[in-house]
Amino acid sequence: MNIVPLNPAAPAARALIGRLDAYQIGLYPAESNHLDGIEALQRPNVLFLGAYVGDELVGCGAVKCLDDDGVYGEIKRVFVLDAYRGRGVSKRLMHELEAHLRCLGIRTARLETGIRQPEAIALYRRLGYVERGPYGAYVSDPLSLFMEKNLDDGSGFSAP
Length: 160
Known about the structure:
Layout: E1 2-5, H1 11-27, H2 38-41, E2 46-53, E3 56-66, E4 72-80, H3 89-103, E5 108-114, H4 118-126, E6 130-132, E7 144-150
Parallel strand pairs: 4-5
Antiparallel strand pairs: 1-2, 2-3, 3-4, 5-7, 6-7
């Protein structure tokens, strides 16, 4: 598996984001979907990564560096194709996104996920994320779960 920075406007990335959008729209009403579009993912404060197996883009993830509620990185758009789930792709993407934040001196990672995604919630908990209240511009939503991880905990990652 190869994880590299990727332009979210690239055709393969657009297709993957489109699949993620369709998945999210099927789970949640519009007011509970917090989907960053291609343009938002191209901003200078965002790192968008693609996970490749061979020449196939099988997953993606992004992190936005923000300072609207303290300084933190917000994890966004983590998604892996069904055929590649359970192979550690999401975990590797998450570790790369966290490593990026650490390199920038950002010590807090946050995310919002939906309550109807138990696999994602379980992954985030295994990676050390804990529940917290809404942050930044978010408001309380019964379909949202807000999580945070302190990146100063010394937990590094070594690839298998």
